[in-house]
Design goal:
- The complex is a heterodimer.
- By secondary structure, chain A is of the alpha/beta class.
- Chain A contains seven helices and ten strands.
- In chain A, helix 5 packs parallel to helix 6.
- In chain B, helix 2 packs antiparallel against helix 7.
- Chain B is an alpha+beta fold.
- In chain B, strands 2-3-1-4 form a four-stranded antiparallel beta sheet.
- The chains are: A alpha/beta, B alpha+beta.
- At the A-B interface, helix 2 and helix 3 of A face helix 8 and helix 9 of B.
Chain lengths: 229, 302
């Protein structure tokens, strides 16, 4: 699903590369934690996967496509295969829960009839049935993150990128979100999640990729957050 | 679905950015109004220039049966007189560069052509118009040489310096047109800057929406379309105001005030206005569309 071949990313204004000769492969259907301190290159890694950045050196393959050879006008189509979830939810405050989810389909030109059908379905998957017409500011943090996951998943992507999805949530709520991501993973979607949350990583016992200073320092299946190296 | 979605986005965008939208409408209206006015003045100048204006400097009108100047005491010009005048004109080369003869029938035709928008065209017959020699000079300032040679000569009713009569007036109109066009250009630059800024503000105030659209894979066209439509709609509204102003100038100023007071002048007709209107509207749309498009390319990157 994702293949990095000796990828180096050097931002113009910086001396040290944000990613330094990173090679790794993530298979279809995997659940992967991406860990490491701030500035270790996690965000750069995710931005490269989303083709928001291009590598300085090396090749990135995602969903069978060589992103170095993906022309600009094909990027939107490419991104439709990827769902994205962020720490800050990124919901539209003036739209309801259902409208926020429907927005993702409207802007890629899906027909109205289909939107009417799939939005309630996905809201049920994330456990928000009955809250369709609430607005984001009427929801708890955990519920808002569920909306954003629903929006990322409504188009049934092959790959879900989650950038610290539990970073703003308390531990109890985080567990619920992790259960949801696990469920989505079991439905066949590959999940890559960056996190600082030690308890979650230790508990889930999934593959862990650790970056430090742009270098890949650990790639461990069924790993823990950091101390058992 | 797409259409209704884009429409509602455009409507909210215009409302959210109301002050900027109004500013765009006003500047577009003023700049295109002046632009349209200068086109109207240009059309007016060309309507006032008769068939010979740009071709000759001196006109020799020959006596007709009803002429009453002293030089026409002998009645209408005779064939011998006409031939002699033409020969004398030809003898004045190289100052006289070209001599055209206009018969009464030709004069009538040119008259009908020039006054086609005016009721006086129907009241004039070929008999009422004099035949004439139209003379092109190698040195236009030496009008007097020709005038003194032919003025008062039997068979010649009148010698006119074509340039003298209307030149000052045309210079004035030309000056007005240049001023209007200069202000219009400056205002167009202001308009472009304003649209660029409006698009920047709009892109910024909707960065949440557009960032989400990018993430879920909306095409660039789909992301930019609402912004583009906003700019074009504002420009279109401004252009319509400008068109109303041009139409107003034609109805109030030309048809209402000038035409009744100056009956023997030809004024621009609705055909000229009909040519100006699409130019004004198209200029507005293209200008707004292009400036919005290039701004958005910068601020709504993939």
């Amino acid at each position: 699903m994702i293949l990095f071949d000796r990828v180096t990313k050097l931002y113009p204004s910086q001396q040290r590369p944000a990613l330094d000769e990173v090679s790794l492969e993530i298979e279809k259907g995997e659940f992967v934690f991406l860990v490491g301190p701030s500035g270790s290159g996690k965000s750069t890694f995710l931005r490269l996967v989303l083709r928001e950045e291009r590598p300085t050196k090396g090749k990135v393959w995602v969903a069978g496509k060589d992103l170095g050879h993906l022309s600009n006008w094909k990027i939107p189509h490419f991104r439709r295969q990827i769902g994205t979830v962020f720490q800050d939810f990124r919901l539209l405050p003036n739209k309801t829960v259902a409208e926020n989810v429907a927005f993702a389909l409207e802007v890629i030109g899906k027909p109205h009839s289909q939107i009417k059908k799939v939005v309630p379905e996905v809201l049920e998957v994330v456990g928000l049935e009955g809250k369709e017409s609430r607005r984001p500011d009427e929801l708890s943090g955990g519920e808002q993150q569920r909306v954003s996951i629903a929006r990322a998943f409504v188009n049934r992507p092959m790959l879900l990128i989650a950038d610290e999805p539990t970073g703003n949530l308390d531990p109890g709520t985080s567990v619920g979100i992790m259960k949801l991501l696990d469920r989505i993973n079991r439905l066949g979607t590959t999940v890559v999640m960056s996190t600082h949350d030690q308890a979650i990583v230790d508990q889930m016992r999934r593959r862990v990729i650790e970056l430090e200073g742009g270098l890949l320092v650990r790639d461990q299946s069924r790993g823990v957050y950091g101390y058992a190296r | 679905m797409r259409a209704t979605f884009v429409t509602s986005e455009v409507a909210t965008g215009l409302r959210r950015n109301l002050t900027m939208t109004i500013a765009v409408i006003i500047t577009v209206a003023v700049s295109l109004g002046l632009f349209g006015a200068s086109l109207l003045v240009r059309a007016q100048v060309s309507a006032m220039k008769d068939y010979w204006y740009d071709k000759v400097q001196v006109s020799l009108f020959l006596c007709g049966p009803t002429s009453d100047t002293p030089s026409c005491a002998g009645g209408a010009v005779t064939n011998a007189q006409r031939t002699q005048i033409q020969a004398d004109l030809n003898a004045m080369r190289p100052l006289v560069q070209q001599v055209y003869y206009e018969s009464q029938a030709q004069a009538y035709q040119h008259f009908q052509e020039q006054f086609k928008n005016s009721p006086i065209a129907q009241n004039v017959t070929a008999d009422a118009l004099p035949e004439s020699f139209r003379v092109k000079l190698s040195d236009p300032s030496k009008y007097n040489v020709v005038a003194s040679a032919f003025a008062g000569r039997p068979g010649v009713e009148q010698v006119n310096d074509e340039q003298q009569i209307l030149d000052k007036f045309f210079k004035l109109l030309g000056g007005l047109q240049a001023i209007a066009l200069t202000i219009a250009m400056v205002m167009l630059v202001v308009t472009v800057l304003l649209i660029v800024n409006t698009m920047r503000v709009a892109a910024f105030s909707r960065r949440r929406e557009t960032s989400i659209m990018r993430l879920v894979g909306a095409s660039n066209f789909f992301i930019q379309l609402p912004f583009l439509m906003e700019a074009v709609i504002a420009a279109l509204l401004g252009a319509l105001v400008a068109v109303l102003a041009v139409v107003g100038m034609k109805v109030v100023l030309i048809d209402g005030v000038l035409a009744p007071s100056f009956q023997f002048t030809s004024f621009v007709g609705w055909d000229a206005v009909a040519q100006i209107v699409p130019i004004v509207i198209l200029t507005g749309i293209v200008l707004a569309g292009l400036s919005a498009f290039f701004t958005l390319r910068k601020y709504l990157r993939v």
